[in-house]
Write a structure and sequence with these properties.
Blueprint (H helix, E strand, L loop, with lengths): L1 H14 L6 E10 L2 E10 L6 E7 L7 H11 L4 E4 L12 H13 L1 H16 L8 E11 L1 H11 L6 E5 L17 E7 L7 H13 L4 E6 L22 H20 L2
Parallel strand pairs: 3-4, 3-5, 5-6, 6-7, 7-8
Antiparallel strand pairs: 1-2, 2-4
């Protein structure tokens, strides 16, 4: 896994302009009395205003790998807030820790929606000279558990142009909330992902269809769960990085946001 992390970092460094200066800035705020600490990521070598995106991490939550992934995605295109939805005092170190943290969130889905909305609010407060945000284009994307978080952001009726779920949990505790969705929705899925059943996929598609959402569902052949996470090495069985699917998924996300933001 360490070899893959190093290779990913070298590939990113080779692709990045030599003058790029990636900023990482902790952003603290409270949601429901709980202290959250997210991280703002952007390239300050360019002062051009750009869209703001909330990134919801996978089940391991806030860590250096997620911040590195945010840097790679942000480039000169976006300002990204890597969202803390567990709380400042919860930083999973093992899969067991992460499982307990996600279970708590799924058991308290209203708290999850409040916290991902809190992250969006924190990002919007960085507008006005604090970060190179254009102040009018907002979106969100997430990986695995983070995919569930950004889908819940959309279901809450958040004022964002689009949300993207990478191999995310598609289920909801209340399908009727889909009527609140204002955003375009893109779900990127591994065709061989065993974490989401055919019934869950069909339920998500029915949910989107019944609410007349502008939605897309794309499945990548040969890809399983975690296909867009560079550090996923099958240590959790069925959770494995797929470079081809990841590149295709990220390209689709850029095109999706280009279209979503052009409409605003």
């Amino acid at each position: 896994m360490q070899v893959r992390i190093a290779a990913f970092a070298l590939a990113f460094a080779a692709a990045a302009p030599l003058h790029a200066a990636m900023v990482t800035k902790p952003v603290s705020y409270q949601v429901g009395g709980k202290e959250m600490q997210s991280v703002l990521v952007y390239d300050d070598a360019s002062k051009s205003p750009r869209p703001g995106l909330v990134m919801a991490p996978d089940w391991m939550g806030m860590n250096d790998n997620q911040i590195a992934l945010a840097k790679q995605i942000a480039g000169k295109d976006y300002v990204i807030l890597v969202a803390d939805v567990y709380g400042k005092d919860v930083r999973p170190k093992t899969a067991d820790d992460a499982g307990k943290a996600t279970k708590d969130m799924y058991d308290h889905r209203a708290d999850l929606r409040a916290r991902i909305n809190g992250a969006l609010d924190a990002l919007k407060k960085e507008n006005g000279g604090k970060a190179p945000l254009d102040g009018k284009h907002w979106g969100a994307f997430g990986f695995c558990f983070g995919g569930a978080a950004v889908l819940d952001l959309a279901r809450s009726g958040a004022d964002v142009a689009g949300v993207v779920s990478f191999h995310g949990n598609l289920s909801t505790d209340d399908a009727s909330m889909a009527k609140n969705i204002k955003a375009k929705v893109l779900a990127l899925h591994g065709a061989d992902d065993k974490f989401e059943s055919p019934e869950q996929i069909a339920g998500f598609q029915k949910e989107m269809r019944d609410a007349n959402v502008d939605w897309q569902f794309l499945a990548f052949g040969g890809a399983v769960h975690c296909f867009a996470i560079p550090t996923a090495d099958n240590s959790v069985p069925g959770c494995l990085y797929n470079e081809r699917a990841s590149k295709r998924g990220l390209k689709q996300m850029h095109l999706f946001f280009d279209e979503a933001f052009a409409a605003n």
